[in-house]
Design a protein that fits this description.
The protein is an alpha+beta fold. Helices cover 38% and strands 17% of the residues.
Length: 518
């Protein structure tokens, strides 16, 4: 692996040098300018009572206790203020008198998992410490309310439901890529804040994919949202697709106002998850698009092989559902055709030095606010994709777009950039209304009339900006290719106004000279 400034001549020399290596995982880095935790749980499902109980004692070590959110001996959950910093926090406290060795291990394991999956959409963990003899996990209290509490006021609008589901799919995709399964996705474990920011909490049932389900749990999770393979009544191994079933059950309730199965008896719920087909959402609500109903049916398939293979693939279809909803298109479309399967692997082996250099490059780009190119070169199968995937898991608060050259040098070669830009636009369509409107405004302003040069190659851009009357090109004397290049740069600049961009361009040895220059 080598790093060098973005110079077309250098990249061309690598491409033309006759070597048999492939140029994969080229990360084009563009800087941006300066510019709760689950409440008391009954395994049958969310509770209707989320009262905050005032504490009998006003302090716990350095923490001023504000309210007790939940209690299930030996665990209690508190809202508190850290008097050392003045920051609001959530405390998960294990009573030293009643805590068993298994309970202590569960809390330690949850803390370890949280430290490894920290990032956008996951509750932020601060510390695990002993306070007054009790083991206490300290988490950031970011406010908001649980999705379960929001649903007490009724089901959500279809667009709002799709946005929440898209954000959950995006969070789960990252958690799964990091090698973990949440194990208990349900409305109590989803926190929402205006404008529809989503946070996944409570990782006490989480486990590593390669090790299987958490030990000691006959059935682990909240029963109303439990995947069939989590019930212990099938021989199917539990993997990341169990989270997708639970997300499907959650989305079912968000849209319909009730879980897929309404029984209050545990035995009935276990049987229903394994053997009963839930009602179609179209039979429960008139305004549900057929494509959304089919998507939820796919998530709730009894056989994991019939569900989505990854949260990333689910995200593609959720974004498409939302696009069609905005455009008034109600016809269903083929599901599960995009995205990728999550591979079970032991991690990146023997590439720590290269990964460190890539991370160092990224940090420098963000710090100095200038673009660079990092070239990852090697023969097929050596691990280039694994290396760039490892970098992607460590790059947070940034846009990450991926494209690959599918053709030899020629007019189709620029598709590598268009594919990366399509990826960025799809991510943008999952933003909240305010963020989406701000980004669309920046894109429209920077692109001007040249937006139409890109819309044929990037249909998601049309969904992002909305349909407007075509205007004459601002520079009609320029060739269409040159205008397209200028429009690409303008679009990237609009995205980079908000946060840095990392473009992963694969199989770049196939690109033509003009694409290399761009």
């Amino acid at each position: 692996m080598c790093r060098f400034p973005c110079e077309a001549a250098r990249l061309e020399s690598e491409r033309r040098g006759g070597a048999r290596d492939e140029l994969g995982g080229v990360a084009c880095l563009m800087p941006a300018p300066v510019s709760s935790l689950k409440h008391e749980r009954d395994h049958m499902g969310p509770q209707s009572d989320e009262r905050e109980v005032r504490p009998p004692s006003g302090e716990l070590g350095p923490f001023a206790l504000v309210a007790r959110l939940a209690e299930e001996s030996p665990m209690s959950v508190w809202r508190a203020i850290d008097r050392r910093t003045g920051a609001p926090v959530i405390l998960k406290r294990l009573d030293r008198v009643n805590a068993t060795a298994a309970a202590l291990e569960r809390l330690r394991r949850e803390y370890e998992v949280l430290t490894r999956v920290q990032g956008p959409g996951v509750i932020e963990v601060i510390d695990l410490e002993t306070v007054a003899g009790d083991l206490v996990m300290v988490l950031v209290d970011s406010g908001g309310e649980s999705l379960a509490r929001r649903l007490q006021r009724g089901s959500l609008a279809i667009d709002e439901a799709l946005e929440i589901a898209s954000r959950l799919a995006e969070i789960l995709a990252r958690v799964h890529d990091l090698g973990y399964v949440h194990g208990d996705v349900n409305p109590n474990n989803v926190v929402i804040r205006a404008p529809l920011e989503v946070e996944l909490i409570d990782f006490d049932f989480a486990f590593e994919r390669r090790r299987g389900r958490a030990l000691g749990d006959a059935w682990a999770g909240t029963l109303a949202y439990l995947a069939p393979e989590q019930t212990g009544r099938t021989t199917t191994p539990v993997d990341h697709r169990a989270d997708l079933y639970s997300l499907g059950a959650t989305l079912f309730e968000v849209v319909s106002g009730r879980p897929p199965f309404a029984s209050t008896r545990a035995a009935d719920l276990l049987r229903d998850h394994v053997a009963t087909r839930p009602a179609s959402l179209t039979a429960l609500r008139d305004d549900v698009p057929a494509s959304l109903a089919e998507l939820v049916d796919k998530l709730l398939a009894k056989d994991p092989d019939e569900r989505y293979s990854s949260a990333a693939g689910l995200l593609w279809d959720l974004v498409e559902c939302r696009r069609r909803l905005h455009n008034g298109e109600r016809e269903p479309f083929p599901l599960g055709t995009r995205g990728r399967a999550v591979e079970l692997h032991a991690g990146l082996i023997g590439r720590e030095e290269e990964l460190f250099r890539l991370q160092d490059t990224w940090r420098r780009v963000v710090r100095e606010r200038r673009g660079e190119v990092a070239l990852v070169r090697g023969p097929r199968g050596i691990g280039k994709s694994a290396l760039t995937a490892a970098l992607a898991r460590r790059v947070t608060s940034a846009w990450w777009g991926r494209g690959a050259c599918e053709a030899d040098a020629g007019e189709l070669a620029p598709s590598v950039l268009y594919e990366a830009l399509r990826d960025l636009c799809r991510q943008a369509l999952t933003l909240g209304p305010a963020e989406l409107a701000a980004l669309a405004s920046r894109c429209a302003r920077r692109l001007g009339a040249e937006r139409h040069v890109l819309e044929d190659m990037i249909p998601e851009l049309r969904a992002l900006l909305g349909a407007v009357e075509r205007r004459p090109a601002s520079s009609p004397e320029l060739p269409r290719r040159a205008r397209g290049d200028a429009a690409i740069v303008a679009l990237l600049a609009a995205f980079a106004d908000e946060r840095p961009i990392c473009l992963e361009l694969d199989r770049l040895q196939r690109a033509d000279d003009e694409s290399i220059a761009l």
